[in-house]
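Sequence, please.
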């Protein structure tokens, strides 16, 4: 029996749940060993107490459903990533109850290289919330982070759109199968996400979203991310607050966008800040500044930083600046002592007339996400600015 088939078999046992499945893997060592276990072994498994209904499900060794799922995924181009695969994000694997199987459509980013940041909020979003969520997604996308959300109406969708419009990566975690678009109004958004990012779920293709699935999927949204940003949340039963609680339980940073004192959509966000459970988010740029150190740094390795299954060399490694080019002396106000070596290199190239992010990536020898992050921070500091679509020195 293949490992992949046994993982899918284990994940489809009725009434088991991710927590019990992970406990079984720890107790028996592999999904194949769990499959081979008899009733006595399952009943007496150390540190993994099971209810009778769970033992009964595990004693059902029929693999027809798992084989059907594997065949459907192969036919529909849906990638299956198991808890034992190298493509499974280490950050998600570290949570208490990680999903045993992930089903993925699109291009799966390498979360171990590119950090994800969750941006979630209410479906009943205000214009302020929609604008803020899109602004955050856009800033994260430009800087090279993965914007993670749930593709729901309101703030979630705005965050995805912001990342897409900035040319960034975004991943949507669904409460149903990755081939089931919910809400149906987001069919176009789902298609846009699939062009450059990914749709992921722990539920097999064809699964319709259910109420309890949303609570479970929120732990994946936070589990994939280094931090969770709550844009708007009207009350403590909202999905955004469930994501915040999951992030806190997982030891992740939580931020909340403040709102007016009498704004019902901001009530829970303001309460999180008041109780010290979430940091007040003043601007998306603060997120970029805080987590920029997690972005890929300069390296001699030329593997693709974005996607797990598509290694390719970057243009940045193929060219170096021509020896005949001599940078003009930089103004003292620009080349402050606070600039890092990489920041200085970006500024020097802009002074030489290299005015687009694509050309900077080609010339500076740094990974693309790192370059985009540096550009964003230099723009925030006023050192660079955009003029007619090109980067120029801000103080000129």
């Amino acid at each position: 029996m293949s490992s992949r088939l046994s993982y899918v078999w284990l994940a489809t046992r009725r009434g088991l749940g991710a927590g019990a499945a992970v406990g079984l893997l720890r107790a028996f060592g592999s999904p194949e060993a769990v499959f081979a276990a008899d009733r006595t072994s399952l009943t007496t498994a150390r540190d993994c107490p099971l209810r009778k209904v769970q033992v009964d499900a595990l004693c059902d060794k029929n693999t027809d459903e798992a084989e059907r799922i594997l065949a459907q995924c192969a036919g529909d181009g849906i990638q299956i990533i198991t808890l034992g695969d190298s493509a499974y994000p280490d950050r998600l694997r570290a949570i208490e109850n990680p999903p045993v199987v992930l089903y993925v459509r699109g291009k799966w980013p390498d979360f171990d290289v590119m950090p994800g940041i969750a941006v979630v909020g209410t479906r009943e979003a205000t214009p302020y919330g929609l604008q803020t969520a899109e602004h955050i997604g856009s800033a994260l996308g430009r800087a090279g982070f993965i914007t993670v959300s749930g593709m729901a109406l309101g703030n979630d969708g705005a965050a995805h759109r912001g990342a897409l419009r900035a040319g960034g990566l975004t991943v949507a975690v669904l409460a149903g199968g990755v081939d089931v678009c919910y809400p149906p109004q987001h069919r176009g958004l789902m298609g846009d996400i699939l062009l450059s990012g990914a749709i992921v779920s722990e539920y097999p293709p064809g699964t319709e979203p259910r109420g309890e699935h949303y609570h479970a999927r929120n732990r994946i949204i936070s589990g994939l991310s280094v931090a969770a940003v709550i844009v708007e949340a009207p009350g403590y039963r909202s999905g955004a607050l469930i994501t915040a609680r999951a992030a806190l339980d997982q030891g992740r940073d939580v931020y909340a966008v403040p709102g007016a004192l009498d704004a019902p959509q901001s009530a829970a966000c303001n309460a999180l800040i008041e109780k010290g459970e979430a940091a007040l988010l003043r601007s998306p740029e603060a997120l970029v500044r805080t987590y920029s150190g997690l972005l890929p740094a300069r390296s001699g390795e030329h593997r693709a930083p974005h996607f797990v299954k598509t290694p390719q060399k970057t243009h940045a490694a193929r060219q170096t600046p021509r020896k005949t080019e001599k940078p003009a002396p930089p103004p003292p106000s620009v080349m402050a002592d606070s600039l890092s070596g990489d920041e200085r290199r970006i500024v020097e190239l802009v002074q030489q007339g290299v005015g687009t992010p694509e050309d900077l990536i080609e010339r500076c020898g740094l990974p693309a996400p790192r370059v985009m992050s540096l550009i964003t921070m230099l723009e925030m500091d006023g050192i660079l600015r955009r003029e007619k679509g090109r980067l120029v020195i801000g103080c000129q």
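The two ends are 67 Å apart (CA to CA).
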